[in-house]
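Weekly structure sync, notes
Attendees: PL, DS, HV (note-taker this week)

Item 1: DUF1292 domain-containing protein
DS walked through the input record. Source organism listed as Domibacillus epiphyticus. Sequence as pasted into the shared doc:
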Amino acid sequence: MEKIERGDILTLMDENNQEQEFEVLGTLSIDGTEYAAVGSVEETQKEPGEEIEIFFFKIDDEEQLTIIESGEEFDKVFVAFDESIEQ
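Item 1 (cont.): predicted structure, written out as tokens:
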């Protein structure tokens, strides 16, 4: 699979096993591990300034998104993405 980059549209299965399209809002490398922030395409189409729900995933060696299972790791990723937006 090609490198996951900002602006890519990915089709993922939601918690109800329904396909849903997500847009990659950004990627970030932390301690040699790649992560992606994504939002549903429906939500990313909202007016600027409106809040959207963002999900964070780990990008594995095969450019597949995997769930971040550790609360500590999730917190580290959340803070890093938040800081990257503020810069």
